[in-house]
């Protein structure tokens, strides 16, 4: 359990009992939780505290979680900050919107604290691990991916990706030409055995295509299975 390194987690939740529950379990795991009870306070705390991850409730006073997510993603400093949304099952359409706006993952209420902690840890792992002897650079047409610097560029233009978009692109590039099921992608990139909807992958693929237009034709959807990145004639 020594992987947390006392990372700082901002919990944004207006229900006091849930806030305290999440705080308690994060502390127990060696994290440093800070809290906010409204959307505006969340944005203020992100600036002041510079957290490593945000646990963000959707339904908040003053400014909802969707707007908070949108604002965090629109600023370079927080464009890649891991965001885990808390949502109620009845808010499924909002959940998809949240993923579209840049949330990395979500947990539905009621949730088990263990499941929440597992998601937090999986998100924090990010893409810091580069396989031994593996290339730290990917080239695909005009696209360059630098794993050491956590950067992606199209030509000379850097393109900011969230942690999960970066991980998904890395996995597609490593396994180009192969069909990857949604389940395989979830386990490889999100880092846990996923249950329930696989819409998360679809939304992230869509966002990658929007940010990197050359992937629009390059990532093929394989009916009822998953996705495949076309082989490129550009060598790594």
Overview of the molecule:
The protein has 236 residues and is α/β, with parallel strands linked by helices. It has 2 domains: 118 residues, Rossmann fold (3-Layer(aba) Sandwich), CATH 3.40.50.2300; 93 residues, Winged helix-like DNA-binding domain superfamily/Winged helix DNA-binding domain (Arc Repressor Mutant, subunit A, Orthogonal Bundle), CATH 1.10.10. The protein contains 9 helices and 12 strands. Strands 2-1-3-4-5 form a 5-stranded parallel beta sheet, sandwiched between helices. A 4-stranded antiparallel beta sheet has the order 6-7-8-9, covered by helices on one side. A hairpin with a 3-residue loop joins strand 11 and strand 12. The longest helix is centred in the N-terminal third of the chain and has 13 residues. The N and C termini lie far apart (36 Å).
Question: Which helices and strands occur, and which strands form pairs?
Answer:
Elements: E1 8-12, H1 16-28, E2 32-36, H2 39-49, E3 53-57, H3 65-73, E4 83-88, H4 92-101, E5 105-109, H5 113-125, E6 137-140, E7 143-146, E8 151-154, E9 157-158, H6 163-174, E10 179-181, H7 182-190, H8 199-211, H9 215-218, E11 219-222, E12 226-229
Parallel strand pairs: 1-2, 1-3, 3-4, 4-5
Antiparallel strand pairs: 6-7, 7-8, 8-9, 10-12, 11-12
Helix pairs in contact: 1-5, 2-3, 3-4, 6-7, 6-8
């Amino acid at each position: 359990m020594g992987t947390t390194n006392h990372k700082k987690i901002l919990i944004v939740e207006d229900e006091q009992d849930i806030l305290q529950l999440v705080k308690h379990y994060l502390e127990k795991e060696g994290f440093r939780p800070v809290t906010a009870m409204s959307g505006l306070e969340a944005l203020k705390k992100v600036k002041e505290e510079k957290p490593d991850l945000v646990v963000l409730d959707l339904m908040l006073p003053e400014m909802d979680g969707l707007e908070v997510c949108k604002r965090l993603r629109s600023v370079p400093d927080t464009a890649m900050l891991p965001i885990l949304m808390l949502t109620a099952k009845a808010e499924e359409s909002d959940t998809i919107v949240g993923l579209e706006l840049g949330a990395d993952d979500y947990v539905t209420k009621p949730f088990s604290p263990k499941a929440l902690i597992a998601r937090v840890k999986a998100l924090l792992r990010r893409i810091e691990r580069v396989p031994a002897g593996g290339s730290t650079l990917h080239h695909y047409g005009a696209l360059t991916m630098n794993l050491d610097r956590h950067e992606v560029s199209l030509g000379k233009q850097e393109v900011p990706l969230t942690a999960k978009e970066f991980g998904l692109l890395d996995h597609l590039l490593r396994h180009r030409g192969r069909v990857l099921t949604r389940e395989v992608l979830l386990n490889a990139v999100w880092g846990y055995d996923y249950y329930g909807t696989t819409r998360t992958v679809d939304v992230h693929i869509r966002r990658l295509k929007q940010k990197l237009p050359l992937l629009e034709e390059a990532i093929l959807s394989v009916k009822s299975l998953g996705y495949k990145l076309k082989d490129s004639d550009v060598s790594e």
